[in-house]
Write a structure and sequence with these properties.
By secondary structure, the protein is mostly helical. It is 67% helix and 0% strand.
């Protein structure tokens, strides 16, 4: 059984003094050594050796996790707000995709326009390996605040693009600058939650991830209404800029680190982690899932118009999917704390893959709404549990780098996924081959998840 102890950290790694909540726990974290002895208990499978390539230092057994209390929950609220303003904003890309195709970028193909959204997803994922390592080294607000400011400034720049620039400017500003800035805000804000939570990590990460659902629900409706109003495109982006300024100011004031800098060898990358089969298969699974995961969210609005729905009605499908994903982000967090994060993530991600195959037969408003709800729930479960699974695979002190490598690998899948789907759609004019591609890669990713669990546990079933 895992022993829960209250200890103090070594003096060379002072942790801010605070009164722990009654639920405070100290546990040994899962690591990635093939020579580790795995034990099981309330916190899940626990090996007792550092990750390959990780310099011995502050271990989870030396850390007292609050697992609750006002300060810990305020950090969750800060992470929630960041998710609203980063992933929530990017999840509203489908509205811009439809607007650009019929207005300012009507001279470009659907596949070409989709590159802007893909670059945003690339940007929010790829910096994870850098931002995560910076977090482990103690650089948190120094990366968070400048990146948040740049996101806000970009909204005002985009407002001036239609009259002064071409497609390339949208690629650079709305694609690259907004995307990469969001990555340096989102990734450390999510990862830092592990400094405050152990036994209830699934719940904490779930509430943080729910922010992207809230943002992905509110922003599409707000953007569409503003675009259709007398304000027009320029003031729509300016209003977004002011809204994001308020969100990020409040978030930055709430977010705090707690674990001291971690002296790991290997710099930004710890390639030794990929010698561990369970970590390698999990990262590969995430890559494959992301390759297909965002296709429905990008093209469901366009499909609604193609099957005869009015554009005023079809754009609500994006908001419905994002609103439903809040259920998939919060509820699985409670479940994962009971049965294990990967045991929760794998079947719900499989549901997402199955729903993608069903998507082309949904050709009425009612069926598309049902699809948006179910897919949103399954999609949200995958996204909310990535961090929790990575926390299961190693020590908290090296959490930023480990999570960063995983999420950065997924960045290239995010970059390629929707343009591939757009190219298939442009060539076939049919959503069936699009769904076949996206659904297949998602299910292939789930298979990798199951292999990772088998490697870690040595059997097909168990808490993980």
């Amino acid at each position: 059984m895992v022993t829960f102890r209250t200890t103090t950290a070594p003096t060379e790694f002072p942790i801010p003094s605070e009164k722990p909540s009654p639920s405070s726990t100290v546990v040994e974290s899962p690591t990635l050594s093939p020579h580790a002895t795995w034990t099981h208990g309330e916190a899940g499978p626990v090996p007792h050796q550092d990750m390959v390539g990780e310099k011995p230092g502050l271990r989870d057994a030396d850390i007292e996790f609050p697992d609750g209390g006002l300060r810990a929950w305020s950090v969750v609220l800060g992470g929630f707000l960041v998710s609203v303003g980063t992933f929530g904003m990017i999840n509203a890309w489908g509205v811009f995709q439809t607007y650009y195709a019929s207005n300012v970028l009507s001279y470009k193909s659907t596949s070409d326009i989709a590159w802007i959204g893909s670059l945003q997803y690339l940007g929010i994922f790829l910096p994870g390996v850098v931002s995560g390592r910076l977090l482990d080294m103690g650089y948190f607000h120094s990366q968070l605040i400048p990146a948040a400011v740049l996101i806000v400034v970009c909204q005002f720049i985009i407002a001036e693009l239609p009259e002064r620039s071409g497609f390339g400017a949208f690629i650079v500003v709305q694609g690259l600058l907004v995307g990469f800035s969001a990555g340096f805000v989102f990734n450390p804000s999510v990862t830092v939650q592990a400094h405050w939570w152990m036994r209830r990590r699934g719940v904490a990460f779930g509430f943080v991830a729910a922010g992207s659902s809230v943002g992905g629900t509110i922003f599409p409706i707000m953007i569409r209404r503003l675009l259709d109003s007398s304000l027009g495109f320029r003031w729509t982006l300016r209003v977004m800029g002011f809204v994001l300024l308020f969100i990020f100011t409040l978030a930055c004031s709430l977010l705090r680190t707690r674990i001291p800098p971690h002296p790991s060898k290997g710099g930004i990358f710890n390639l030794g982690a990929f010698k561990e089969a369970q970590y390698t298969f999990y990262v590969l699974g995430c890559f494959l899932v992301v390759l297909g995961l965002y296709t429905p969210l990008t093209y469901i609005d366009t499909m609604g118009v193609d099957v005869g729905l009015s554009s005023d009605l079809s754009f609500y499908l994006i908001s419905i999917a994002n609103a439903s994903s809040a259920i998939g982000r919060i509820v699985p967090g409670f479940i994962s704390d009971k049965i294990g994060p990967l045991n929760t993530q794998a079947p719900l991600t499989a549901l997402a893959g199955v729903m993608v195959f069903i998507w082309p037969v949904c050709r009425s408003l009612g069926t598309l709404i049902v699809f948006a709800i179910l897919y949103g729930i399954a999609n949200g479960a995958y996204v909310s549990l990535i961090t929790t699974v990575n926390a299961q695979l190693g020590s908290t002190a090296d959490m930023g780098r480990r999570y960063g490598m995983c999420i950065s690998a997924s960045a290239f899948a995010a970059l390629a996924g929707t343009p591939i789907s757009g190219a298939i759609l442009g060539k076939t004019k049919n959503y069936t081959p699009v769904s076949a591609f996206a659904g297949s890669v998602i299910l292939a990713g789930v298979i990798c998840f199951l292999i990772a669990r088998w490697v870690a546990l040595g059997r097909w079933w168990g808490r993980f």
